[in-house]
Design brief:
The complex is a heterodimer of chains A (352) and B (205). Chain A is an all-alpha fold and 352 residues long. Chain A contains 14 helices and no strands. Chain B contains 7 helices and 9 strands, in the order βββαββαβαααβαβαβ. Classes of the chains: A mainly alpha (352), B alpha/beta (205).
């Protein structure tokens, strides 16, 4: 019975997080390895031959798996069970086994690509992952803080939630934003798009690639939104004001992500193209963020499906960008903004 | 009257937890809310604090309706300091940030030296809420609730988790609050605490 409860408390949440990673990786793998693309061996050989590629691949996997690994290694969710008589080694072995098993895509890549040699990469990555997952962040330090109104204070609360609770997601988001910019830059350059054509297509590419980077941050904002609900209500922050602060925080995340992507795309596109691309990408990102904000508002009281609803909102935001920019070109930014405002304004919350 | 509750009905889901309740709290009065588990003590306090909307009735604090128009709501909430049963503000906030947020919302000055001394707030200032014990969290929330100070304190089991020294301090703060012509609504299972405070008892359920 003890192990069954422990498994539900520790393994099950970690598995849920890992499965979300698998889904994302499956999409990327389908693109990279599908059709006439690379073979697993090509990638593992490249990683073994070029240390920078190997380190980059390992670092990316580490960041993706860290949230699931933390739950397994720390076992905080089962703290209460430690007070009850139970096995000592069985949960440790089960956690270690789960830590390896939950890295299924990594196992498949290295076993298919490097055979027995791949076991070394798997073992090494698992040891590093366990060690990094064990590290607890240092407690934040207080600076003198004074807010001029409760709404500004609430915005400060959301900013702190991102900084203190979503460190991994911030790093992942930064990496994905750079990737989005490079992808957009390559697309614009390789298709020799004119400066006037590039913004809509480049911005759409950025919106799609940026989506997984934004999802983790949006979940952190949702959790902060829930956690601060009673406090905001008791301090007189009205529900519309509370939602507006959430939407602004989310728009800032999207706009910053798009700005980083544009900065990265500057490596590949001409300055004249960037001049059109940047306002288009940032405007589309900020406007489409309202679709995600709508999903967060609706997910506030849905404890079980909140994360899934957030992902749906992020996908809807990316789809709105593709649709708006695809149909209307750069002027689609205005349509995306208008549709976003409409979607957000009509978001109905669940029961309190 | 500092608090007037009329015909209050509050539902949690489909269950009617509070049905047609009336309650007045005068200036200088401490009122203890007692009753068995699940009788609606926390629900009543949440409705008064503006956290849980009632399905019917009116709650008025210093002349402003807690659930009225935007302006009234804001005025009413400025006059209320609330500590929930779990004392669970966002865990990633530092205590100093929690106090800054409450001070900003109520246009209140920083905590007085007396409040800091009595509740031992200085040692909590740089601690994140999630790293605090229940008693420390309660003290941090009491510090936030008392900033101003507001006309009405709404405290849900405020003694829960406090050590003997801080419990004495809480009693002293509540007495001083009432002597200054303000009021408090306190839900607790500790009849002795209410007795020592000389609180009027309102039994629910």
């Amino acid at each position: 019975m003890w192990m069954r409860v422990w498994t539900r408390a520790v393994i099950a949440p970690a598995a849920r997080r890992a499965v979300a990673v698998w889904e994302g990786v499956a999409i990327v793998a389908a693109v990279v390895f599908g059709g006439n693309g690379m073979r697993p061996r090509d990638l593992t050989d490249l990683a073994l031959r070029v240390p920078a590629v190997g380190a980059g691949l390992a670092a990316m996997w580490l960041l993706l798996m860290l949230p699931a690994a933390r739950g397994l290694v720390r076992g905080d969710a089962a703290g209460y069970l430690r007070a009850l008589p139970g096995p000592t080694w069985t949960p440790r072995l089960a956690a270690a086994g789960a830590l390896v098993a939950l890295q299924l895509p990594w196992l498949v890549l290295w076993l298919a690509g490097a055979g027995a040699r791949g076991l070394i990469a798997i073992a090494g990555e698992t040891v590093v992952l366990a060690a990094v997952a064990r590290i607890r962040p240092r407690p934040p330090r207080a600076r003198r803080v004074a807010w001029r109104s409760a709404a500004r204070g609430l915005a400060g609360v959301y900013a702190r939630a991102l900084r203190r609770c979503a460190g991994d997601a911030l790093v992942r988001g930064l990496g994905i934003a750079v990737l989005a910019g490079l992808g957009a830059g390559l697309f614009v350059r390789n298709n020799a798009l004119a400066p006037t054509e590039a913004p809509a297509i480049g911005a759409a590419v950025i919106a799609v690639v940026l989506a997984p980077g934004v999802a983790g941050l949006a979940v952190a904002l949702l959790e902060a939104h829930r956690a601060s609900a009673w406090l905001a209500a008791s301090l007189g922050v009205t529900e519309p004001a509370r939602r507006a602060v959430l939407a602004i925080a989310l728009a800032a995340v999207y706009a910053l992500g798009a700005a980083i992507a544009c900065a990265a795309s500057a490596l590949l596109v001409a300055p004249a193209t960037l001049l059109y691309l940047a306002p288009c990408a940032i405007g589309a990102a900020a406007g489409s963020s309202l679709f995600t904000a709508r999903a967060l508002v609706r997910a506030e009281h849905e404890l079980r499906t909140g994360a899934a609803r957030t992902v749906i909102g992020v996908v809807a935001a990316a789809a709105a960008c593709v649709l708006g920019l695809g149909l209307l070109g750069a002027t689609g930014v205005l349509a995306i903004g208008a549709a976003g405002v409409l979607a957000f304004a009509t978001a109905a919350t669940g029961p309190a | 009257m500092i608090l007037v509750v009329e015909r209050l009905t509050v539902k949690r889901g489909a269950r009617v937890v509070i049905d047609d309740l009336a309650l007045d709290v005068a200036a200088g009065e401490l009122v203890g809310i007692v009753g068995k588990n699940g009788c609606g003590k926390s629900t009543l306090l949440m409705a008064v604090a503006g956290v849980l909307a009632p399905s019917d009735g009116r709650i008025v604090v210093t002349g402003s309706s807690v659930w009225g128009g935007d302006g009234e709501r804001r005025r009413a909430r400025k006059d209320v300091g609330y500590v929930p049963e779990l004392a669970d503000p966002p865990g990633f906030l530092l205590a100093a940030e929690l106090w800054a947020l409450c001070a900003a919302a109520r246009d209140a000055p920083a905590a007085t030296p007396e409040l800091i001394e009595r509740l031992g707030l200085d040692e909590l200032r740089e601690l994140a809420i999630e790293r605090m014990s229940l008693g420390q969290r309660r003290r941090a929330c009491l510090g936030a609730a008392l900033l101003g100070p507001p006309q009405l304190l709404v405290l849900d089991e405020p003694d829960n988790g406090l050590d003997a020294r801080r419990l004495d301090a809480l009693e002293a703060l509540l007495r001083a609050h009432a002597h200054a012509g303000r009021a408090a609504l306190v839900a607790t299972h500790d009849a002795a605490l209410l007795d020592r405070l000389g609180a009027r008892i309102v039994s629910l359920g």
